[in-house]
Every structure is written in structure tokens, then in C-alpha cells.
Amino acid sequence: MQLYVGCAQWTHAAWPQPSRDKLRSYASWCNAVESNTTFYATPSASTVASWAAQTPPDFRFVVKLPQVITHERRLNNVDAELRAFLAAIEPLGPRNHAVWIQLPAAFAPTDLGALAAFLHQAPREHRYAVEVRHRDFFDDPRAAGNLERVLARANAEWIPFDTGTLFARRPTSLAERDAWMKKPRVARRTRALTGHPIVRYIGRDSVDETVAGWTYLVELVINWLSEGRSPTIFLHTPDNVEALNLARRFHATVTAAVPTLASLPDPLDPEPPTLF
Fold first, then answer.
1. Chain-centre distance of CA 140, in angstroms?
2. How far are the Cα atoms of 42, 70, 84, 120, 202 from residue 45, in angstroms, in the given order?
3. CB burial class (10 A; 0-12, 13-18, 19+) of residue 114?
4. 276 pLDDT band (50/70/90 cuts)?
5. How many CA atoms lie within 13 Å of 137's alpha carbon, on the beta-carbon side?
6. Fewest CB atoms within 10 Å of the CB: 82, 86, 123, 163?
7. Model confidence pTM above 0.85
């Protein structure tokens, strides 16, 4: 039973990080991260090896499949690309928590056959988690049920992106306006399909509003932990300035109710003192 928390990135200009080894610094604050950079291109094995070298063995990456697989080919005829990607991330070893299949908003319930075929052929030594954005999966119980059955056959998880707090009231900043235009407005999901549920939560620029909005999620995570599940929660805000602190605050809030959870590490000093 573990609780993993993290952010959508491991570096930010507003975070207290050294000029080098930013991932190593981030891993002293959180124990998981969304690996979004892999969406744009498959990294080299040497790059991935450097990620592993900067993180402790119990750190976890949720690595996003490249867009050529999910958005350009829509999961069709991608066996070679998938295997190349899985080979590239092999240096992560157990740090690879799940392969994140983020599908475009146009990927509809009528496309589930492609997802079912993809998951059926995907190598079983990896865990898979799927994020859908088409409204029918959230508004139509039949579509949701069909997706859950496809995922269950592969022991794959459904990643919800909870934007409820973001859309609770109109944006008040440029960052919030940008998030309003780009983030999906879909119904909240609270159902875990596997022992390793993953939730992406985005709040507001206001820390107080962000924390108030995650009350249900704290209770949900405590319940999942009591069931023996090991959830992963990623904390976002429109500008992500406070995301690092919010991830630790979320973990501390859950730990107050579940004191047997392992503690997060102590953050490294962003700039170690020098002799001169």
C-alpha cells in the first residue's frame, strides 16, 4: 500500500531547484511524475537511463505514449513504434509505474475496437493506463461500461482528469483562461478499476480554492488505501507555480489520516553551500 504524488513536470522556473540535476531535486519533493515529454518523441535509452540515475528506486514515472501512436495513428498499426518506445524506457525498470495512453478528444466510443486490439497485443510486462476525453465516455453509461470492460480485460486503469475545480467559476487570470480553453470539461469519476488508480487533478491559481476542491479526493484516496490499493495523484494548477508544494500538502493531509504511509523525502537544498 503506497501513495504516490507528483506534478505534470519536474522543473519550473518558480520552484526552488538547482541549476543542474533538476529531476534529482524534484524527486526529493515528490515520489512520482507525469512524463509528458515522451508525447513529442521517443527518448533515447541514454536519456532514460539518466532519469533513472537521478531518482531513487521507489520513485515512479507515468510515461505518456508518443503522439504518433495515440493521435496520428490512433493506435492502429503501431506495433513497431510501441516496441521501440518500450525498449527506450526499459532503463527505468520498476520506476516505470504505468504506460499512459492519452487519447484525443475525437477518439470516440466507436473507436473502442482499436483500443481493445492495442491492449490485447501490448506486452504484458507493463502496466497500462488510459485517458479518454470524448464526452460520451462520461455522459453515456453504456459507453463508459464498454470502456471499462475493454480496460478490465487488460487489467488497465482509466485515468480521470478532474477539472471540476477549474471550471467551478470563470477564470480570473491569463493562466486560468488558457486552462479553460485547453482542458477537458468532463464529469468527475471516482471509480478505480485496478489496484493502482491514477487521478490527475487541476485546481485554480488560488491555493485555498485548490485545496477546498480536493476534499472529495482526499476521502477517496483514504478509502482506496483502506481497500489495499496504491493510488497515484498528480496535482496541477493553471500555472503550476504552487503544484510542488500542493503535492506535498496533499500527501501530508492523507498521511494525517493514514499514519502508516511512508513519508515523502526531505527536499534537497536547491543550492548546496560551497567552501568559498
1. 24
2. 9, 21, 10, 26, 31
3. middle
4. very low
5. 30
6. 123
7. yes
